[in-house]
Design a protein that fits this description.
The protein is α/β, with parallel strands linked by helices. Helices cover 50% and strands 16% of the residues. It has 13 helices and eight strands. Helix 2 runs parallel beside helix 3 and helix 4 packs parallel to helix 5.
Amino acid sequence: MSAFTLARRLRAGEIVYCGWCALGSPIVAEALAREGFTAVSIDQQHGLWDVAATVTGIGAIHAAGSAPIVRVPHGDFAMVSRALDLGAEGVIAPMINTAEDARKFVAVAKFPPVGERSWGPNRAMMLGDFADQKAYLRDANDRTVTLAMIETRTAMGNIDAIAATPGIDVLFVGPSDLSITLSDGAVLDPLSKEVEARLVEVVAAAKKAGKVAGLYCGNAARAAAMAKRDFSFLAVGSDLGFLREGAAPHLKTLKG
């Protein structure tokens, strides 16, 4: 049995709460994992993570007993397979707007016959406790998770086709970008009525295709509420947000 746990937990219907790291610090990512997040995401798209820090961060998250996930930069499908080779248990791909985008994502994330992922998972085999290469090849497609970000009006129009794409495991909503596109750039509000209406559609599409619905949440209260609305993968806050929230009461006391 592989040490990778994320895919198994999601298939079992467990609610996975994921800490979010943008600061590019492996020790911060490890700290979130040790605090008890089931998964911790390394954000290469908008965060400060380079490849070297990502390598160290993935190892640190694993060592702390959590599942490392990497959000790759927009359109950087080459980084998808590299992140998996480095030991990520899941990869988040931004702006998956069409079934063709979803197929391109799957092509680099899954081995044949599902995709076309290239071979080279030396670090992943070490971190995942895979006994040999044959075992990894046999199990990798089921043990690694693809999270397709749903962030645009176009993606919502193609939601059923994206969900039905073989090899896509999670429909992961980015509510801030979704609010921007739904309002034609007029509003940034991840809690808007327009976004709320689309969340119902995402859950329905995920259920229809036998996939998992996921959502980025600004705080724990939002995540707990959305877990009751059939979202099983919930990203919670961010490392910078946690830092600022932790510092705020101390500074308030000092300022009187």
